[in-house]
Amino acid sequence: MNIALWLERIARARPDAPALFLGREMLADYAGLDRRARAVAGWLQEQGVRPGDRVALFMGNAPEYLTALYGIWYAGAAAVPINAKLHGAEAAWIIANAEARLVLADPDHRAALAAEGVSALPVAEAAPVTTIAARAPGDLAWLFYTSGTTGRPKGVMITHRMLMAMSLSYLADVDAVTAEDATLYAAPMSHGAGLYALVHVLRGARHVCPESGGFDEGEILDLAQHHGRLHLFAAPTMVRRLTAHARAKGARGEGLRSITYGGGPMYEADIRDAVDWFGPVFIQIYGQGEAPMAITALSRDEVADRSHPDWRARLGSVGRAQSVVEIRIADAQGRDLAEGEVGEILVRGDLVMPGYWQNPEATASALRDGWLWTGDLGRMDSDGYLTLCDRSKDMIISGGTNIYPREVEEVLLSHPEVIEAAVVGAPDPDWGEVVVAFVAGTATAEALDAHCRAHIARFKRPKRYIAVESLPRNNYGKVLKTALRARLAPDQDAETSDSTR
User: Exposed, middle or buried by CB within 10 Å (0-12, 13-18, 19+), for 407?
Assistant: First the structure.
């Protein structure tokens, strides 16, 4: 089944329902959104696009993004959404790797591609198609390219079945959606925010593109108050920024119904601060491109709860398995580990990708015996709550002991003079690796070391503290630990603590 049929059905059932907005201005009801998608599909067919072809989208958040996405699916093609923050050369590589039949881009991104010798077209319309192309559940719908922090990005093949499983699991495990709700595209539509468009189409909710085209704290609060019952997907850094802005302005987030966060580690201090200010509007999800948005969820009640004996541990977790997946914690040989033991997180179910685009070696490494090896390390408690420890490649082994950077980062971030922190391992002739912390803020190395000594075992504390103005991040907002490790070369000019264990 073609995932786009949900738009056709809601357009028939509620043609006059408001559908698409730019800021406060309504651009289309559901009948109009359906017509536009059909017209884009008709134009794509005139350009030679056929079912199964890939069509790339390289543009910022805008109403045209949604009509283009559904036009691609109406034509039976697969969308290749490209992060709008990428360099033209990076986008050109993705376009070539995907063997895209056509590239759709806004003026700025057309210019960036032209500089790389790649032609792109604006989204256009022609005679609307009368029939939506039939697609099988296993057909490619969305080719998602990973962030590529350790090399060339890989193309995750996301099928129509995966998108349906993700969307229905959202309703079962994450949040209710009604026709009175609105979803705001403040995070990239090429990623989680765009994926969540599907469930909001299914329920006939409103779709709001901010006039800024992205994340602006004041604009979000204004649009929430104007539209009411507003939902948005946000990375943890966005939650922190929104909370700080709202506090400074004395704004309590009137009209915000839910903020689903994921895509990186949410530190306890940040989410407690956000809940204290905005109330119980936050929901956490854990997923990855290979199993998009629906591995686990932590409900709004669990995020806000402070009465359960285990509330702190649960708040530090990513919740429990969503309905469409099985989860295991395994050692390097694939053997199940006991409750509370740390191992790699394995996932199985209709949510999991069939493989990487034209990359059989990477596929064979990630998919083994029907399970997705996520590359994430975690532990499961007796109640089924999954706690992420780190990426397997980020774990530090010092003196034969495993140290998980996130645990140390949580402690550092609880210091009042720390704005952000990241922990990596540095090679050491005696210990194999030692812990190094990059810290933005005003705290001294001595103060940070005393803070760590008071809260974690001595062997876990950083042996070096390096002051930075900010942490390097990729275009998805994730900290580039590869860049931090590169800074650890022979240079020893950083503030240093006592290295004894």
Answer: middle
Looking at residue 30, its pLDDT comes to 98
C-alpha 130/C-alpha 261 separation (Å) is 38
Both structure tokens of 41? 């599909």
Calculated CA dihedral for residues 143, 347, 196, 323, nearest 10 degrees: 140
For strand 367-368 and strand 371-380, is the pairing parallel, antiparallel, or unpaired?
Answer: antiparallel
Nearest to 283 by CA among 354, 321, 234: 234
**Residues 6 or more apart whose Cβ sits within 8 Å of residue 456:** 407, 408, 411
- Identify the three-state secondary structure at position 72: helix
Where in the chain are all domains bearing CATH 3.40.50.12780? Answer: 5-386
Assess contact for 423 and 441: CB atoms under 8 A. Answer: no
Candidates 155, 132, 152, 134; CA nearest to 143 is: 155
Token representation of residue 437:
């912390």
> Are 423 and 452 within 8 A, CB to CB?
no
pLDDT digits (tens, 9 = 90+) for 49-72: 999 999 999 999 999 999 999 999
If DSSP codes are grouped into helix, strand and coil, which group holds residue 133? coil
| CATH for 5-386, options being 3.30.450.20, 3.90.220.20, 1.20.190.20, 3.40.50.12780 | 3.40.50.12780
Could you give the CA distance from residue 35 to residue 169 in angstroms, rounded to a whole number? 28
Mean of pLDDT values over 198-221: 97
Residue written as tokens 């800024």?
A: 212
- How far apart are alpha carbons 291 and 373 in whole angstroms? 11
Range 395-496 has CATH code 3.30.300.30:
yes
Q: Say what the pTM is.
A: 0.84
Q: Which helix (H) or strand (E) holds 247?
A: helix 236-249
